[in-house]
Amino acid sequence: VQLQASGGGLVQAGGSLRLSCAASGRTFSSYAMGWFRQAPGKERDLVAAIGTVGSTYYADSVKGRFTISRDNAKNTVYLQMNSLKPEDTAVYYCTARSRWGGRRVDEYDYWGQGTLVTVSS
């Protein structure tokens, strides 16, 4: 699976962005998908994940503000980010794995190139 993330940019605090991740291949619907983020000098952490039948996971820091969704017909996963805060500034990575439940970086098999989100105060 090849992943191509897009949609990052500069936004003011309180604003919104929607990240997209287009996946290649005909088996997209069989993969659990996730979004990680990595701020400068920090570890890469899972932000949100979505399973093959729509189960979702959110990090506590983004619950109520971010929404992950997928469109299997378009081989695309989205991350809608609302009420953005300066601490959301990071490079966001799209990921995929063959089973639901992964939370760590080493549990994901495929990675996109990352897209930078910068939230100004």
Show the helix and strand layout.
Elements: E1 3-6, E2 9-12, E3 17-23, E4 32-38, E5 44-50, E6 56-58, E7 66-71, E8 76-81, E9 90-97, E10 110-111, E11 115-120
Parallel strand pairs: 2-11
Antiparallel strand pairs: 1-3, 3-8, 4-5, 4-9, 5-6, 7-8, 9-10, 9-11
Annotation keywords:
50% strand; mainly beta; 121 residues; seven-stranded mixed β-sheet; globular
Describe this structure in words.
The protein contains no helices and eleven strands. It has strands at residues 3-6, 9-12, 17-23, 32-38, 44-50, 56-58, 66-71, 76-81, 90-97, 110-111, 115-120. The strands form two sheets. Strands 2, 4, 5, 6, 9, 10 and 11 form a seven-stranded mixed beta sheet that branches. The model has no long low-confidence stretch (mean pLDDT 96).
Cα separation of the termini: 37 Å
Helix content: under 10%
Rounded to an integer in angstroms, the radius of gyration calculated over CA atoms is 13 Å
DSSP strand content? over 45%
The secondary structure category is mainly beta
Number of extended strands: 11
